[in-house]
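Pilot study result, target chain (95 residues):
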Amino acid sequence: MSEELIPAEELDDALKRAPEWEADGDAITRTIEFEEYMEGIDFVNEIAEVVEEAQHIPEIDIRDGSVTLRLKTEDAGGVTDLDVELASRIDNLVD
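Predicted structure:
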C-alpha cells in the first residue's frame, strides 16, 4: 500500500473505493449513526482488529448515537492509498 499523498484533484476518484467517506481538509471522514451509545462502542471494538492489522489508527470521536472516523497519513501530510484502503475495509464491517 502506497504512503504517497493522493493529489487533491484525484481524491474524489480514489474515494470511489470508499464512497461513504468524504474529503475533509487533509483527511477523509465518515460518521456512522447508532441507536444506542453501546452500539458505537461495540463498533469501535469491532474495527480495532482491522485497524491494528493495518497499523494505521484513525481518529475516533464517539458520541451518543454516532461514531466519526477520520483518516490521514501523518508522514505524507494527507490522504494516501493506505487511508482509502482502510476506509474500504472499515466500510465492509458496517451493517
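One observation from the pilot: The longest helix spans residues 37-54. A full batch analysis is planned for the follow-on phase.
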